[in-house]
Amino acid sequence: xxxxxxxxxxxxxxxxxxxxxxxxxxxxxxxxxxxxxxxxxxxxxxxxxxxxxxxxxxxxxxxxxxxxxxxxxxxxxxxxxxxxxxxxxxxxxxxxxxxxxxxxxxxxxxxxxxxxxxxxxxxxxxxxxxxxxxxxxxxxxxxxxxx
Length: 147
Fold this sequence. Notes:
Blueprint: E1 10-13, E2 16-22, E3 32-38, E4 46-49, E5 53-60, E6 62-67, E7 70-75, E8 79-82, E9 88-93, E10 98-105, H1 110-119, H2 127-136, E11 139-143
Antiparallel strand pairs: 1-2, 2-3, 3-10, 4-11, 5-8, 5-10, 6-7, 6-9
């Protein structure tokens, strides 16, 4: 796990590490890739990315994904595609962390993770600031995280 120390390209927010491994500047903003390490029982509130498709490539661990009312569990070696404009969320299940690549097309949303880490925002106390950053990154929150 030593590769997940805080550096210019790796940030930590609420126990999850985000390492940008393909910056959108390298792709003409066409895409970005973030290597994420999330602890057990973690996951975001339900939300919608209005501008980006999101692809999860599971490297280790398991996540339960919710996409507009349909649930699936994905583990090591599996891929989950979330089309832009679709309400979704996920939660790390089991006792192990989940490491997954997040591929975003187009790129740019990884800036949200940097905003959250630099602000050290807490949920729910800082939701107004979190929602403001989400809006700047073409995302809106739509409901609670998975139980």
